[in-house]
Amino acid sequence: MTSTTPRILSIIIPVYNEYNTLTELIDRVLAVQLPDGMEKQLILVDDYSTDGTRRLYGELRSKVSRILLHKKNQGKGAAIRTGLKHATGEFLIIQDADLEYNPGEYPKLLQPLLKDQADVVYGSRFLGTGERRVLYFWHTVGNSVLTLLSNMFTNLNLTDMETCYKMFRRSILEGIEVEQNRFGFEPEITAKLAKRKARFYEIGISYHGRTYEEGKKIGLKDAFSALYCIVRYSRATSRDVGRQTLEILEGHGEYAKWIYSQIEPHLGDRVLEFGSGLGSLARLAVDRDHLYITEQNPAYIEQLKRQFGHLPNVSIHSVDITDPPAELSDADIDTIFSSNVVEHIDDHLGALRAAYGLLNPGGKIVILVPAFMQLYSPLDENLEHYRRYTKNTLTRVLRDAGFVVEDAHYMNMVGAIGWFIAGRILRQSVISGFNVWAHKIIEPFSRAIDAMFGRRPPFGLSVIAVARKPR
Q1: 192 and 90 part of one domain
Q2: Is 168 in the same domain as 89?
Q3: For 47-65, b where at least 16 C-beta lie within 10 A, e where not — what string?
């Protein structure tokens, strides 16, 4: 007989002064029957309770998976941040330690995740499918205003952004750092997941709110903090510079189309992209008979699966470019293309030789890389570029890999000037939203300037080479 590893729901329970409710809450959580034999991982994070709550942990220790104690009070967001470090389940939910939310609703919150329809499910108190205790009018108004503002910045249509019940596919949280210590966690995580293009679902839940006399903690200052967080995290970019750059360029679709216009004439029917990033070029190439999307970053792989996993002619592979898996060797690939990837690889010759091995005889490779070491700047260093290329240096490494080079030319003369100003003169280390905005404005002019030189601009921000594997 073969045994299967049970799926796990991690339940993070931030605790602060919940002596009267915590034991009953734990019993309610343990009583829930999860679907498909799923198991629970209960993680309690005590945020320095002072009302006697910590005296309960002796008897509760045998009921939960882990109890973590803060040495000072920091807030709900800080407790969640601590809990996330220890959560190992495939799915994860935040559970307040009071009795306002009903753990018996876990199974219905899980359904969109188990059906692979969603990456995050919010339990909405305002969808009208469950009983709800009638309490503060101005709390409802404040919640509606904050949800509306959050939706305006994230382009979502949530009904209850501030809900405690947020259930996640844990992989969607990989690489996301929770920064807010208090209730700012709610708008922060919503904005960051929206930027990742997570699939959101909402399900109506019951809500048994409590009064301030009964221990409610959120207040007016938290509403103003939420306003700040909505604006900050909807505009902020990732601390991962590579991801930050990809996210910014995701908003510059016309530039991706320009790059693709240089690549598309050379594409065959069975196409592989080396290093797909967040998929800005892949989504333009999905009309091929088959598109192989490859990426090494696990967080990017998850996002690519959400975007393209439903397409029958697209397959997504986790690949070390210098050592691709055997399954791709038999894929009958007639074209490989790559944009702004090879410069990140120390052994770029090894990567191109691996590409050579994957191609059918007579197949083509189309490579776009940054041009001219004279433009190398803190921008390149921060993006972990090993080098920039000229037509000659790119041609040479392709030939060393075994290819016959058919064409090499520069692209985006105006962009090269902008990169020089930003990187060499102003010494910028990250591409800013302003840089992208400026590039959007001048892009038609950039295209026109390049067109004046036909296929032979004398310089450019990038160099593109087309090469063929000999028959």
Answers
A1: yes
A2: yes
A3: bbbeeebeebbeebeeebb
